[in-house]
Every structure is written in C-alpha cells, then in structure tokens.
Amino acid sequence: MTTTATKPGRDLSISGISKTFGTFKAVKDVSIDIKSGEFLTMLGPSGSGKTTLLMMIAGFVQPDRGGIHLGGQPITHLPPEARNFGMVFQGYALFPHLSVFDNVAFPLKVRRRPRAEIEEKVKAALDLVKLTTQSQRLPRQLSGGQQQRVALARALVFTPHLLLLDEPLSALDKKLRAELQEELKRLHRKLGLSFIYVTHDQDEALSMSDRIVVMSDGRLVEQGTPLELYDRPRTAFVADFLGKSNFVRGRVESHVEGGFVFSGGGARFMQQIRDAKPDIGSGVTVALRPEKLSILAPGAESDNRLSGVVREWNYFGSEFRILVDTPSCGPISVALPAWNAGVSPEVGQSLELGWSAGAGMEVQEA
C-alpha cells in the first residue's frame, strides 16, 4: 500500500538526478538541497531542463538515476498524489464547468474530507488570495490574474508539504505579473512553506527568490542568492543570462596591490582580485554590468577608461540605454539614470567611458 510522504516543514534533497528522453539528455546529474521555508527559483532558458526537474520533484516524471528525499525519507518512486505537494501551472488548469469554490474544494473532495472541513478550508484559502466574493463565479468570468489566484488557492487548500510553481505568471501582462509577484511573496512570508518556482524571467527570479539555481543544457551552472549571482557571478553564462553584461577580455600583464593589470585590444585595464591572483600571461574575462559604467567628463579620473562613439540609444523614462562602439572592446552597453545622466546622447557622439577596478567581475568562460 502506498503511503503519503512525510509531514510539512521538512527539507527537500535532490541527489544526482538525471533524465533522458530517447537520445536527448534533459537533466544531467543535478543535486540541490532546499531548506524548509525557502523560496527557491530554478532559472534558465527554454530547454535547460528546469521544468523536467520540477516534474520529477512532483512525481509526474521518473528519473533515470538519482534520488529525492523529503525530511530524510525517500520519495523518488512515490506517485504524485502520495507526495502531498501543491502544484500551480502556467495555464491555470481550472475546471471550466466548476465554480471558484468547487475548483478550490476539489483536492479536499478527492481526499474525502468532511463537508464542514471543506467549507472552512476553502473559505480560508479564498480569503488568503482575496477572492472570497468571487466564490460562485466560473473561471471564464474571471480575469487571468484572478484565475491564477484560484489555482493558487486550490494548490494550498489541502496544506501541502511544499508548493511547486511552473512559470505561473508568464501568460499575464507586465503590470499584472508584477502585482502577482508581490502576492506570491506575501503568501510565502505568511505561510512559511517551501516554494520551488520555475521561470525564464530574470527579473522575476531576482525580485522573488531567497536562492536561485541557474540551469543550462540540463546542468546546474551556478546557485546562490540573487545578490551573489548578480553582483558576483562566477561564469560568463550567468553574468550574461541573469541581467546584461559587457565582457572585456585580455591577458594579465602584472599584479598590483589588491588587483592586477590586463591588456586587451590595445588598451590596459585594472581589476580587483576576486579570489586568487591570476597568473601573469594568463587570459582573463571580466564581466561589466552596464549600470556600473559612467560617462566621464573631460579631465575626470577613473581606474579604467575607454573611448567610443554612440551607435544607438534608447530612453526608458528612468534611464538611458546607450550602445557605444569602442575600438578596443567592440560594442559596450551603458545604462545611465536619466535624471542626472549629464549627457544628452546622440548617434555618432564621441564619449569616454569609465569604471572602477572593483566594478568588474572576473568570470569563467564556458
């Protein structure tokens, strides 16, 4: 007889999980430990393996190798219904012929809970997502955001061990998506459940997560807090996928106190040491976020300087985004706060860019 998984509030451990479909290796030897109450986001481009990994956690897909443990107990071969995990999909997956109340009540009815308990728990779940007054409506009478709130209430009504969310906001417009991001963060704080969230949206991952796991080609590339991965990525892939980066490449010329000097494209640059000193003569790649560059006034001092010409620019209300062609490093993107940019960009305009030795991040190429 199949038993349910263990009680809520337990850590989830994924060890050496792999999955192949035919000749396609969807997930390759991935290991992640997820703490109880953590908001963990699996981020990556399409085809990176993040949804397949989520489906293995949910029990809908069986791994070829590796194991999954909840609270130290193996659940790798438990069916989905025995794991007691809540699941929210991109497409809502609501029953169109059932009212909001009956959609939310469905998991409890399947579990044959008493009528009074169903009434109480559905009301509490609808209160949680602020849909009490919509309980008798059909899904087609609701907005997309309201339908996703119903899906959330249904996933939470039976007190799951943790909540799995597969790109739940990608079908919504930008404003509504931002509102529901805040709603999900509020629910996470209130409930204290582990949330495992899949997305390809970098801003979503940065704004919502306690920790981000970045995946590419079925592998776990890097993991860390949003601040760690944005400010101190270790790979060029993460530096460019999570946000936007320029890459300055060259060879180490010399060591200086707290840093090193490297040359590339006929120019010389200074970079702070991140971990160990790179060997003199070795190749280096430094990632540089567009917002960490400035446009230098004549005579201004800077650790690093780079001359170029404006190829194109865009105004986004809060900032200018400028693409500058440089003879030494090719196209360089710059993001400047519009209110005090100190420049009105024009195509063909000559500029001198500057950045501090600590602004760049030495990263590993793939």
From TrEMBL:
GO molecular function: ATP binding
Pfam families: ABC_tran, TOBE_2
InterPro entries from the UniProt entry: AAA+_ATPase, ABC_SmlMolc_Importer, ABC_transporter-like_ATP-bd, ABC_transporter-like_CS, Mo/tungstate-bd_C_term_dom, P-loop_NTPase, PotA-like, Transp-assoc_OB_typ2
Domain ABC transporter per the UniProt entry, residue ranges: 12-242
Subunit-structure text: The complex is composed of two ATP-binding proteins (PotA), two transmembrane proteins (PotB and PotC) and a solute-binding protein (PotD).
UniProt similarity note: Belongs to the ABC transporter superfamily. Spermidine/putrescine importer (TC 3.A.1.11.1) family.
Name of this protein: Spermidine/putrescine import ATP-binding protein PotA
